[in-house]
Amino acid sequence: MPIASVLRYQDYQFQVSLTSGQWKWTTRVDVSGSQVATHIRDVISPFGLLRDSIPIPGEVAQAMADSISQVVNTYAPSILLSPSALTFVVDEGRGVSSATQVHVTNNGILGSLLSAQVTSNVSYVAATPANIGGLVSNASGSFDVSVNSTELVASASPYAAVLKVQGATAVNTPQEIPVIVTVRPKATIVTSITNVTFTVTAPLNGRFPPVPSQIVGLTNTGPTASLLSYQVRRLVGAPWLVGVSPVYGTIEGGATQPLTILVSPPDGALPGLYTETLRISGYSTNIATDVVVTLHIT
Question: Which CATH superfamily is domain 79-184 in?
Answer without folding.
Answer: Immunoglobulins (2.60.40.10)
